[in-house]
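Follow-up to my post from last week.
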Amino acid sequence: MKTQNLPNTEKDTFVRQIKGSDLLVKCLEREGVEVVFAYPGGASMEIHQSLTRTSDKIRTILPRHEQGCGFMAHGYARTTGKAGVCMTTSGPGATNLVTCIADAWMDSIPMIAITGQVNQKLIGKSAFQETDFYGMTVPITKHSFLVLDPHDLPRIIREAFYIATTGRPGPVLIDIPKDVQQAIINVDLNQPIDLPGYNPTPQAEDEDLIKLMELLTLSKRPVLYTGGGIISGNAEKELLAFAEYMGIPVATTLMGLGGFPETHELSLRWFGMHGSVAGNWAVCDSDLLITLGARFDDRITGVVSKFAPNATIVHVDIDQSEHNKNKLVSLAIHSDVKYALDRLMQLAKERNYSVPDFSEWQHQVREWHTQYPFAFKKGTHITSQEAIQTLYEVSKGDAIVATGVGQHQMWSAQFYKFKEPKTFVSSLGLGTMGFGLPSALGAQVAHPEKKVIDIDGDGSFTMNVQELATAVREKIPVKILLLNNQHLGMVVQWEDSFYDGVRAQTILCDPDNPGGPENIEGLYPDFQTVAKGFGVPSKRVWKREDLTSAMEEMLNSDGPFLLEVIVPYTEHVMPFIAPGKSAKEIIISRDDA
Amino acid sequence: MRHTISVLVENKFGVLTRVTGMFSGRGFNIDSLNVGPTHDPKFSRITVTVMGNSQQLDQCIKQLNKLVEVMEVRDLANDTFVARELLLCKVGCDSENRTEILQICEIFRAKIVDVSLHSVIIEMTGNLNKIEAFLAMLEPFGIKALARSGAVALERNRKLEL
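User reply:
Got it. Predicted complex:
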């Protein structure tokens, strides 16, 4: 049986005559919340009043759409590891958060979603702006609470943050009826966490770790396949130490980007459908695949039977339900990955483990890495790839990058190299367009000293373009590199590859007068005018000679800035492993297709 | 293959939704479901019987284990547990065949809990096989209404089996 008891060390914790909403704010402050992203409405305005009247510790940021506040909380959480807090009213306010909650669920992001609910007397009466949001979000939350009694708030808030941030992180919903917010009560804040069924930090058995080392001794071609667990588990140092000590090449997932420095000589960058040739081949040819905090997603494995077909697979994960879920493994280790890596090193040293010589294998994968880097052809016009590479150079690789979803997202991961964890912010499991701008805003709020850049496509950008207003009004100096190809590029690429190039609702401009680098007049919509309307300084570039200086201007600007680069829609993301194919059949460039 | 799964949970609202959602979200049809408090009112026991292949179900059990309010999950294997179900059955009858029904009840150690001119309500407990055999015997008399509790199950003490 699982048990969990945490001590509570507070004193003088009794509070008299406090309003429920004030109590909520007090509890949020106690959890160390610095910022809440919140859009008000009838069932949540009480809490906004409390935030405004009673809290000088919490900054409340107003987005321009509820989905914006959810993704701002993502950006905050993904770049800090702390829980991001968003709040909306009941009904439509809440349902507008559903995508954000699902996104946090898929990518294991610690997010606290607070929603107002109608008065308990009205629940079940189809009241104005009533939805059963608790019921609606059960399959996409790690846990959820419907607060029926204001006296429970101190315990519930504490439990919510604890659940969201420990173990495998995830979103937690707190639905609070208006009468709970308005009640005046006497309450003891000292309410210990009571979660007898929750055990978030499993630790590997030494026996299993020793078995792993024995497998390593027998191995000739080991690969470390590392995912988001390295980042959420703060295990990047342990991973680096282990990889270097054993001399094992590392291929990350997109979730794991930055968990291992991409500039390191053991790095094969990231692998999967559009990942590196070296990463994909190394995993495919490996005889021992050590999977750390990753979940064998279909965009990583392709056809499961063709994935690492000759490898003995070891899977270290904090979530036991990921073991043997998508791919059967030989050794499943249920553990916090940081503990497992740390303990592996201790055991190796204690037992005078003799590190096998992998130099031949290292040499082989390095050769692939050098021979087939992420690459693009420089043509007449600036391409997205070139723009991102230029951004990488101009920003010296030090920025936090957020993206929308589509081709530009893949190219961002290919041509921006990530050295540090928590610097790549992208909707990877759910793949939500419109994610880039709001998540960049959240990241920038968490890191005012850093350059935060939303690399976006015109399709994705338009989906949450209203958040430009948030950037201006809240003085959040986020930068936007808008790669405008006037099309839904990724779908266009699939149309080209599998549907004879028939365009089915993938053209965003006037199809009879499509905009592009050769037809600036035809561009639609006019993002320069849009930016102007929101009061965001902007620039449009379509000639190579203007690119670097425009990037510099963007990065040197004090406030938010939109740099729109007009690119052709004809580029494809390469490499590409087509559905049903093995990593060996990877298409490296379009000339081979 | 039929599985009987015993889930010990915190006695809070919403738990049942989460537990059944794990099955329905993966396309399992629940054959029977029973929930009731345990000797400790903080906890309830949910007993679920489902048909399914073992690997899928293994996944399902791991997912159940992940739920914050779930304390313990057991997939009860063939002969390691005791399972019983309660049956209430209303059977049509008249003065001519009532005695025959009473005889059948006696064989199955079932009780008549309500009687009227044209029907009786019978209460019976037993394992799945017994209940199905009993129902087969009653069928010819005309079953008017039927309610079953679904199985409740407890694990046997394994040490005694040695």
